[in-house]
Design a protein that fits this description.
The protein is an alpha+beta fold. Helices cover 41% and strands 21% of the residues. The chain has 26 helices and 30 strands. Strands 5-8-3-2-11-14-13 form a 7-stranded mixed β-sheet, with no helix packed on it. The chain is globular and about 90 Å long. The two termini are 23 Å apart. The structure holds arginine and zinc ion. Residues 219-433 form the Peptidase M1 membrane alanine aminopeptidase domain. Residues 115-180 form the Aminopeptidase N-like N-terminal domain. This is Aminopeptidase N.
Amino acid sequence: NVQYLADYRPYPFVLSATRMRFALAATDTRVRTELSLAPRDPEWSEDLVLDGGKAVRLLSLTIDGEAPDPAHVTRDGETLTVAAAALPRHPFLLETEVGIDPSANTAFEGLYISNGMFCTQCEAEGFRHITFYPDRPDVMATFHVTIDSDLPVLLSNGNPVGQSQGRAEWHDPWPKPSYLFALVAGDLVAVSDSFATRSGRQVALNVWVRPGDQDRAGFAMESLIKSMKWDEDVYGREYDLDVFNIVAVDDFNMGAMENKGLNIFNSKLVLASPETATDGDYERIEAVIAHEYFHNWTGNRITCRDWFQLCLKEGLTVFRDQQFTSDMRSAAVKRIEDVQALRARQFREDQGPLAHPPRPDRYEEINNFYTATVYEKGAEVIGMLKRLVGDDGYRRALDLYFDRHDGDAATIEDWLKVFEDATGRDLAQFKRWYTDAGTPRLTMTEDWRPGEAGGTLTLTFSQQTPPTPGQPEKPSRVVPVAVGLIGPNGDEVTPTQVLELTEASQTFAFEGLGARPVVSALRGFSAPVMLSRDLDDATRAFLLAHDTDPFARWESGRDLALSALTAAAQGQATGGNYVQAIGRLIADDAADPAFRALCLNLPGEEEIATRLSTGGITPDPDAIHAARESLARQIAETHLDLLARIYQDMTVAGPYRPDAADTARRSLRNAVLALLTRIDGGERAEVLFGVAGNMTERMAALTALLRRGRGQAELAALHDQFADNRLVMDKWFAVQPMAAPPAQAAQIARDLATRRDFDWKNPNRFRALLGGLSANHAGFHAADGSGYDFTADWLLRMDPVNPQIAARMSTAFETWTRYDAGRRAKALAALERIASTKGLSRNTREMVSRMIAAG
Ligand code: ARG
Ligand code: ZN
C-alpha cells in the first residue's frame, strides 16, 4: 500500500464549509457532520470517496436531506464511497452521523480520552477516525463546531460564538484542512493573559491545564507572548483570531500540535517549575511554544498540498524557531546545540536503512516520516538558502511567499519559485537538497604558494554522497562553504566568505596573503555535510584557541576529542593534545560558560561510533565506552584543581532563573561535576543533590552518581518526593537505564518495566524507559543481545495498542548494520521476530522491513 508523490491528483470535489456537532460520551460519542460540497468540474462524473477508519460506525447518511439508494454507498475498512450516480452535478450538502468510542482509542489518534479529558490529535490522518471526510491537506474548509457535554471547558478551533450550559459553539473563519481540527473537553483551568497585535487586535491567551498545575504554566505563557511579538518583528506576521488557546495533555504521541487557534501540547512541553523541570526543559518549552505558534503562518495559513511536502511547513517552522531561540538566548550556543542534535539524529538516519530525502517521494505510513530529516535537515536546507541569497533576499522571498500563497496548500516547487522570483537565482541544482537523501562528504585540501606580492592559498574541495536506499546515484549539489582565514598570530586576516561549491571538485584561491594562514572552514556549519581535511592536532588546538567563529572553534575541539577517542577505541593511545587544549579553554574566565561547557562535554558514544563507521571501521561499543571513560578520567585527573575552582566559581546565587546566563553557568558547573565525581567518590554530587532546590542540579548530580554506580539513595529520595508527579517520574525511569553501567542497563530496564508505576500505555513513560536504554549506546548494543531483546519485546507489546509509538521507538535499531557480525545477527533476529508477528501495524511493518532490507 505505497503512496507516491507522482500520483498526486486534486480532490474531485470542492469542500467549502464543514459543520460538526459532537455529543460527547466516553464510549459512544455521536458526531454529525455536514459538508458543503460541489463537483470540481460539473462535466466530470466521479465517485465521492471519504476517508473513515474501521472504528467509525456509520449511523446515517443523506445528500440534500435524502438517503441515497444503499446500493450506491459502499464501506470498506478505510473509506466510504458514494457512487457518482447518487450525486448531484451542482453544489450539495452531505450529512453523516457516526458513532465512535474515545475510551477505546489507545492509539491517541483522532478523539481520545486522557486523564478524563477529551482531546484530539489529527495530524497526519487522525481526523478520519472521528468522521467520514476527505482527510487530506489540500481540502480546506471553514469549520463550525458545536460541542454538547457536561464538562466545564469545551474548546475547538477559531473564535467562540456561543456558550450555554452543556454546550459550546466555535467558528473558525480561516479555511483549513482536517489535520488542523481540534477539540478539547474537560475539567481544566487556565492561566490567562492577553496580547495586542500591532494592528490593534486584542487576543485573549489561555494555557489550559488540570486544576493544581496552574503554578507550572506561567513560563509557557511568557514564551507564547515572546513568540507572538517576535513573529511580528522579524517576519511581519500577526495573529488572526480573537483567542489563542494552548492545552496540556498527559497522553500525547508527539511533542505538540499546531491546530488552528487551539494548540495541544504534551504536558512535558508546557508544565515547568524550578523544582520539577531542568534548564533543558525550559529551553525546549520556549522553543516548542514558539514552533507551534509560528505554524499559524507556516503551516496553517499556508499549508501543504500533500504529505510529501511535510518539510515545507516543518523545515521552515523549525528554522524559524531556531532563529527565535538564537535571538532569545545565545546564537552561538544554539547553533552548536542544533548541530549536535542534527548529527546525533539526522546524520545517523541518513547513513542507515531509513535514509530518505527531506521531501520523500514514496511512503507507506506518513507518520513514519516525522523525522529528523524532514524537520531538522529541512531547516538546514533553508539555512543554506538564506546564506546563498543573503538576508535581504531571504526577507523578500518570504514576503513574496506569504503574499502569493496565503490560503494555499503549497509545494516545495512553490517555495523554491518565490526565491527564484524574488532574487533571480536559478535553484534547479539547489533543489537536490530536497529530493536526494544522504549526507554529502566533503574533502578539503590546501596548497600554499608564497610570492612577492603576497602568497596564494588554494583550497580544493571535492564532494561525494554515498548511495542511500533507492538512490544509487548522487549528482553534485550546491554546497555553501563559509570560510575565514586566521593569521599565524591568531588574528583573522580574511573574514567569512561563502564559497559556492557546485561541481564534484572545485578550487578557490585567496591571493595577496602575508604569511600562510590557518583555514577556518564550514563556519557556522554552513551546510549539513561531513567535512574532512588533513589537520594535525596542533593546528586544531590553534583554531580552538583563536577561531573567531564560535561554531568552527567548538568544532576544532570536537575534532581533537574525536581523534583521541577514535584512536583509543581502536587500541591506540593518547588524548594528550585534547586534554591540554581543553584545559586552556576552560580556564579562560572571559569566555561564555555555556561555550566552555559545550567544549568540555565529550562527544557521546553514539557519535564516536558514527565517526568510526563513516571511516569504514566497525565500531566496538564496549571499546568506545572504555575509551570515553578513560579520556574523561584523564581530563579530571589532569585538571583537578582547575575543575574544583570552576565548580566553586560557577555557583549560581539567588532565586532560580531559567535564562541564558544562569543556564550557562549551571551547564558548565554540571559538566565539571560529572568529571569531579570520577575523583571525589561522589562527595560533591551527593551534597549538591541534597541542597539543590532545582531539578537541573539534582538531575545532574543524580546522573553523575549513577554513572559511577552510586546514587541509589538519591533515586529513592527523588521517588519519595515526586511519586505523584508524572513528569519527574518519567525522568526517574529514563535516567536509570541511560546512566547505568552498560552491562547492567538492559536488566535495569527489565526490572523497571515490572513496576506498577510503569504505566507503559502512556507514551512519555514508554519513551522514558525504552529511550533511556537506547540512549545508553553500549547498553543497548550489549553483545549478548539483551538490549535488543528487551526492546523488541516491548515494541511487540506496544504495537497493537499504539502503533505510532512502537514504530517510532523501533528506530533504536536503525544503525544495526554497522556493528560486528555477532551483534548484527542478534539485532536481525530481533527485527525478524517483530516482522514475523501476525497483525503487525502498517507503521511498524514499514519501519522493520526497511531496516531488515538493509541487511
Ligand atoms: N505538526 C506537529 C509539529 O511538528 C507534529 C505532529 C505530528 N503528529 C504525528 N502524529 N505524526 O509541531
Ligand atoms: Zn511542526
